[in-house]
């Protein structure tokens, strides 16, 4: 059996990625002239849209590297047949990380205090009390360190994987040493991931918009959101490549497992969503309920419950059956729905805190999102075309070929 | 309850068992069951068994639990004994969700365990015929069911040709019956009529 190991970017794929990136650029420019030059509410809307889009897509592509490292530590072998796809998606952390970093620094250095009230804590007892954590210096240093850490450690993991190309298969002793080295670097990434995505980064980048309010569930909630969307993105690329005749070794068993991930982590997300909501609802303390006031009882009510339907009810009912997790069409539909649903989740996390009076979801939001989607397509396509699609010398490769649920 | 005649072949390697299962099915013998010391991936497909409907049953038990929890709590707190708890509405859905979740899990878990035991014919004080004691240790036991036209000698020869190490013919009860393993009792005696399905 011969394999198509070299991905050639289809002309339509390249065209669409460029068109989407163009749409994104035009939207950002148009948004700048419509919102960015206006009063501070309009400016907040402009920067808020850039903020949630860049952070969402950055965390989604970064979830791909989390997937690699978590499966490495779990000694997983089943994902090895599409390992190069997850690696290629994680390359997008570099461009999107730089864009997000620039936007975040611009927010702080440009004193967008309508978004980040903590930039001017003077006279506010609560914000002064939090200023040890919420201050521009720490924000800037930690943002650069976080994104730099993901880029560096991700590149290290990819380099370890590419070392196996164009060489003799590993001996047993070499294989052991190789797996051990992977485990070490994978665990370093995961520790860094826990210190950033699973704790401080959502506090700094997103939760600090409501600077007075806090929730201990928030970072886990953000992580769950980005991870389930990340798995949906992996699924989309795997199915796209399969439909174009690549990845012959990926079969329904692997897709079934990806479907299980989408199903399970949708429920995990709901668990965190509900834990955050119910405790605040039950305790009914004004300084906590302020976060949900305009979301549940205000103009964002529709989006708030749409969020729950798209991200919980739909995956629960549609992905429950075994046959639906093995159906390409349904998986594609669900992956797109989950990506859209968690994008809306990030939208309401950021915009509902900035513009509390009225809901505005228009060309600007969709245009910026399209730009990032184009960027992910472009970056992933390029990364895929540079390396063989099969990590055939990896010690666990055979495990993935004979994978069976 | 049906007493039937079986041709039993024992294999000592799953690598031999898989092709044997395929060959036996191809040549038209009816496989009663294959007993293995551990679960073997893919054997159910090789044997041509249909997917279990245990998960459908689990879903039905689950939604039964959901409706039980919600309707009972709704009845208690809205109709039977309304209480003002912390100024919350009488039907405070978020507060009911954890209990609803627990009851959903409880109903589906208990229901599925009982259904599983029923499907596998496992229960206390119930006995099932064992074709070979070493099926729980290190032997893969394939049991062919004899129909009216099955020639035992041919079946034995065929099992030997596909790699069975130990072959014998047993007349036994196919289903479960009330009884205990510590008391020797046989529902079948030599000379009793053998039912053919």
How would you describe this structure to a colleague?
Chain A: This is Quinol:cytochrome C oxidoreductase. Chain A: Keywords: Membrane, Transmembrane, Transmembrane helix. Chain A: The chain crosses the membrane at residues 12-35, 55-76, 88-113, 133-153, 184-206, 218-241, 261-283, 303-320, 327-344, 364-384. The complex is a heterodimer of chains A (405) and B (197). With 405 residues, chain A is mainly α. Chain A has one domain. Chain A contains 15 helices and no strands. The longest helix of chain A has 34 residues, at 40-73. The two termini of chain A are 23 Å apart. The mean pLDDT of chain B is 88. Chain B has two domains: 3-50 and 125-178, Alpha-Beta Plaits (2-Layer Sandwich), CATH 3.30.70; 54-119, no CATH class. In chain B, the strands form two sheets. A four-stranded antiparallel β-sheet of chain B has the order 2-4-1-5, covered by helices on one side. The relative contact order of chain B is 0.27. Classes of the chains: A mainly alpha (405), B alpha+beta (197). The A-B interface holds A 274, 277-278, 281-282, 284, 320, 322, 404-405 and B 41-42, 51, 55, 59, 86-87, 94-95, 97-98.
SSE blueprint:
The complex is a heterodimer of chains A (405) and B (197).
Chain A: H1 11-36, H2 40-73, H3 83-91, H4 93-109, H5 125-130, H6 136-162, H7 172-205, H8 218-243, H9 252-283, H10 286-296, H11 301-318, H12 322-325, H13 328-354, H14 363-386, H15 397-401
Helix pairs in contact in A: 1-2, 1-14, 2-3, 2-4, 2-7, 2-8, 2-13, 2-14, 3-14, 4-6, 6-7, 7-8, 8-9, 8-13, 9-11, 9-13, 11-13
Chain B: E1 3-11, H1 14-26, E2 30-35, H2 43-47, H3 54-80, H4 93-119, E3 126-127, E4 140-145, H5 152-161, E5 166-173, E6 177-178
Antiparallel strand pairs in B: 1-4, 1-5, 2-4, 3-6
Helix pairs in contact in B: 3-4
Percentage of residues in DSSP E strands of chain A = under 5%
**How many strand elements of chain A?**
0
CATH fold description of the largest domain in chain B: Alpha-Beta Plaits
State Rg of chain B: 25 Å
Structural class of chain B: alpha+beta
Instruction: Indicate the percent of residues in helices of chain B.
Output: 40-55%
Biggest interface and which pair forms it? A-B, 10 and 11 residues
Oligomer status: heterodimer
Overall spatial form of chain B: elongated
Distance between the termini of chain B: 12 Å
Order of helices and strands of chain B: EHEHHHEEHEE
How many domains of chain B?
A: 2
Helix content, binned percent of chain A: over 70%
Taking the sheet with the most strands of chain B, its summary is: 4 strands, antiparallel
Shape assignment of chain A: globular
Mean pLDDT of chain B: 88
Could you say how many structural domains of chain A there are in total? 1
- Strand content of chain B is 15-25%
Mean pLDDT of chain A: 93
Total count of helical runs of at least 4 residues of chain B: 5
């Amino acid at each position: 059996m011969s394999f198509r190991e070299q991905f050639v970017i289809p002309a339509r794929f390249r065209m669409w990625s460029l068109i989407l990136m163009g749409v994104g650029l035009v939207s950002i420019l148009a948004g700048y002239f419509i919102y960015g030059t206006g009063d501070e509410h309009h400016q907040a809307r402009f920067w808020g849209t850039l903020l949630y889009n860049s952070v969402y897509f950055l965390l989604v592509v970064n979830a791909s590297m989390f997937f690699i490292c978590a499966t490495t530590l779990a000694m997983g072998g089943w994902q090895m047949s599409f390992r190069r796809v997850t690696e290629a998606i994680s390359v997008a952390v570099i461009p999107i990380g730089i864009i997000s970093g620039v936007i975040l620094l611009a927010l702080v250095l440009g004193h967008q205090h309508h978004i980040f009230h903590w930039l001017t804590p003077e006279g506010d007892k609560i914000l002064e009390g939090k200023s040890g954590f919420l201050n521009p210096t720490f924000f800037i240093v930690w943002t650069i360190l976080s994104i730099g850490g993901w880029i560096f450690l991700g590149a290290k993991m990819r380099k370890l994987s590419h070392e196996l190309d164009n060489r003799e298969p590993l001996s047993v002793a070499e294989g052991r040493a190789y797996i051990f080295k992977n485990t070490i670097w994978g665990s370093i990434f995961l520790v860094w991931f826990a210190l950033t995505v699973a704790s401080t980064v959502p506090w700094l980048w997103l939760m600090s918009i409501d600077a007075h309010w806090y929730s201990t569930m928030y970072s886990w909630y953000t992580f769950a959101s980005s991870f389930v969307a990340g798995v949906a993105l992996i699924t989309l690329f795997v199915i796209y490549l399969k439909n174009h005749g690549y990845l012959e070794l990926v079969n329904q068993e692997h897709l079934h497992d990806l479907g299980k991930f989408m199903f399970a982590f949708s429920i995990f997300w709901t668990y965190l969503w509900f834990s955050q909501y119910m405790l605040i609802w039950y305790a009914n303390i004004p300084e906590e309920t302020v976060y949900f006031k305009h979301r549940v009882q205000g103009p964002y009510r529709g989006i708030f419950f749409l969020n729950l339907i798209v991200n919980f009810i739909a995956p629960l009912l549609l992905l429950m059956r075994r046959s639906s997790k093995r159906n390409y069409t349904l998986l594609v539909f669900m992956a797109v729905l989950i990506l859209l649903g968690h994008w809306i989740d990030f939208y309401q996390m950021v915009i509902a805190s900035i513009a509390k009076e009225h809901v505005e979801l228009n060309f600007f939001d969709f245009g910026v999102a399209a730009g990032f989607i184009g960027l992910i397509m472009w970056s992933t396509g390029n990364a895929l075309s540079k390396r063989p699609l099969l990590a055939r010398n990896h010690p666990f490769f055979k495990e993935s070929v004979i994978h069976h649920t | 309850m049906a007493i039937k005649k079986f041709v039993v072949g024992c294999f000592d390697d799953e690598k031999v068992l898989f092709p044997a299962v395929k060959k036996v099915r191809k040549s038209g013998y009816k496989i009663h069951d294959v007993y293995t010391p551990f679960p073997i991936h893919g054997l159910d497909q090789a044997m041509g068994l249909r997917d279990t409907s245990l998960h459908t049953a689990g879903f039905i038990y689950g939604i039964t639990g959901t409706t039980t929890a919600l309707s009972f709590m709704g009845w208690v707190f809205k109709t039977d004994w309304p209480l003002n708890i912390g100024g919350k509405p009488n039907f405070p859905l978020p507060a009911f969700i954890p209990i609803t979740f627990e009851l959903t899990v409880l109903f589906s878990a208990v229901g599925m365990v009982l259904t599983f035991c029923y499907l596998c014919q496992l229960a206390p004080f119930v006995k099932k015929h064992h074709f070979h004691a070493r099926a729980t240790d290190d032997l893969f036991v394939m049991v062919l069911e004899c129909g009216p036209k099955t020639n035992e000698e041919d079946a034995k020869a065929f099992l030997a040709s596909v790699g069975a190490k130990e072959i014998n013919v047993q007349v036994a009860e196919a289903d479960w019956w009330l009884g205990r393993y510590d008391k020797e009792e046989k529902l079948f005696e030599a000379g009793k009529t053998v039912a053919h399905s």
